[in-house]
Amino acid sequence: MPQQVRGVIARAKGAPVEIAEITIPDPGPGEVVVAVASCGVCHTDLTYRDGGINDEYPFLLGHEAAGVVESIGEGVDSVEVGDFVVLNWRAVCGQCRACKRGRPQYCFDTFNATQKMTLEDGTELSPALGIGAFADKTLVHAGQCTKVDPSADPAVVGLLGCGVMAGMGAAMNTGNVGRGDSVAVIGCGGVGDAAIMGSRLAGAGTIIAIDRDPRKLEWATELGATHTINASEVEDVVEAVQELTGGFGADVVVDAVGRPETWKQAFYARDLAGTVVLVGVPTPDMTLEMPLVDFFSRGGSLKSSWYGDCLPERDFPMLVDLYQQGRLPLEKFVTERIALDQVEQAFESMHRGEVLRSVVVL
Ligand SMILES: [Zn+2]
Ligand SMILES: [Zn+2]
């Protein structure tokens, strides 16, 4: 039987989000209904609300979630009813040219549920990143469910589903940060701070946090930054990074902002043959003009990181285990726990830079 539950909907561009009754169909082949336990408020949800991704309103927001499998459709054998799962937005296909070459983290054909969740009048909902978890329950593809240690706090480990994984993976997977490396991270919100935490986990020696907001630099220090640079107080961020790295620049620089000026800083703040990782998301109007010879003469690699080049099946259980062992301070990302009807206020707190993550607990 299809079920009626509460969900947080964005009906029109820029309009405040609201709670609506939504209909969840029974899971079809390959699909799973998940009873949501928690869902973090990510900047991408706000971007959906504001029309920055597409105009397929109404959106069912929320995508950094953990929960329990309630029912499974035909042919699902990767999870069972009762499994505790973290949801991911890249269920890899195993068939595309990237998957076939053994690089599923680049899968070009990821899965979502086939059926649609709807409003009571039958209007189809567009779930954010194919998840839509600001809701009591949601319908996803089985491949979007990754089983993890059920004794872990859902509000904490659900955050691995998006921003925290994107940041950690930008450092560990894309940037390939290793023992003793120097790392600089530009922008210390959720993703940047996760890159700092990932760099520490990977054994980086010097970890430099760069932001304009002293509060964010404090968070960065708690998560493992060894040095901070307040970009509004120094004349030249690149020189400041060089000063902290023996005059050379960092081995890996992560741009977690994604603007031409921050990417340029990242480019010039790295050592010769160093790595730049772009994980902040630029807008389509942004362009870059730079001397081509600088790209050639400085060598190294210039990379972008989607979802931290993660493989949920490989990375989520491992990171949850490290968190459970006290080796990964994931809980520091949870600034506040809120109710389903407080998502709009959480957007405002996020906009003012007051929170690393607000997490809806259901
Ligand atoms: Zn694939
Ligand atoms: Zn997100």
What are its keywords?
362 residues, alpha/beta, Quinone Oxidoreductase, Chain A, domain 1, Rossmann fold, 7-stranded mixed beta sheet, 11 helices, 26% helix, 26% strand, binds zinc ion, S-(hydroxymethyl)glutathione dehydrogenase [NAD(P)+] activity, MycoS_dep_FDH, zinc
What does this structure look like?
- The protein has 362 residues and is an alpha/beta fold.
- The protein folds into two domains: 3-161 and 329-361, Medium-chain alcohol dehydrogenases, catalytic domain (Quinone Oxidoreductase, Chain A, domain 1, Alpha-Beta Complex), CATH 3.90.180; 167-305, Rossmann fold (3-Layer(aba) Sandwich).
- The protein is built from eleven helices and 18 strands.
- The protein has helices at residues 43-49, 97-100, 154-157, 163-174, 190-201, 214-222, 237-244, 260-268, 292-298, 312-324, 343-351, and strands at 3-10, 18-24, 31-40, 59-60, 64-72, 84-87, 118-119, 126-127, 137-141, 145-147, 182-186, 206-211, 227-230, 250-255, 270-278, 301-304, 336-338, 358-361.
- Strands 3, 5, 6, 9, 10, 17 and 18 form a seven-stranded mixed β-sheet that branches.
- Strand 15, helix 9 (292-298) and strand 16 (301-304) form a beta-alpha-beta unit.
- The longest helix is centred in the last third of the chain and has 13 residues, at 312-324.
- The protein is globular.
- One zinc ion (ZN) is lined by residues 42, 44, 63-64, 162-163.
- One zinc ion binds at residues 92-96, 98-99, 107-109.
Architecture (CATH level 2) name of the largest domain: Alpha-Beta Complex
Q: Provide the gyration radius in Å.
A: 20 Å
> What is the CATH class designation of the largest domain?
Alpha Beta
Distinct small molecules: zinc ion
Largest sheet: 7 strands, mixed
Question: Helix share of residues?
Answer: 25-40%
Shape: globular
Low-confidence segments, ≥5 residues, pLDDT <50?
A: none
Kindly identify the CATH topology of the largest domain: Quinone Oxidoreductase, Chain A, domain 1
Task: Tell me the β content.
Answer: 25-35%
* β-strand number: 18
Structural class: alpha/beta
Number of helices, where a helix is a run of at least 4 consecutive DSSP H or I residues: 11
Q: CA-to-CA gap between the ends?
A: 22 Å
Structural domain tally: 2
Mean pLDDT: 96
The arrangement of helices and strands along the chain is: EEEHEEEHEEEEHHEHEHEHEHEHEHEHE
CATH superfamily of the largest domain: Medium-chain alcohol dehydrogenases, catalytic domain
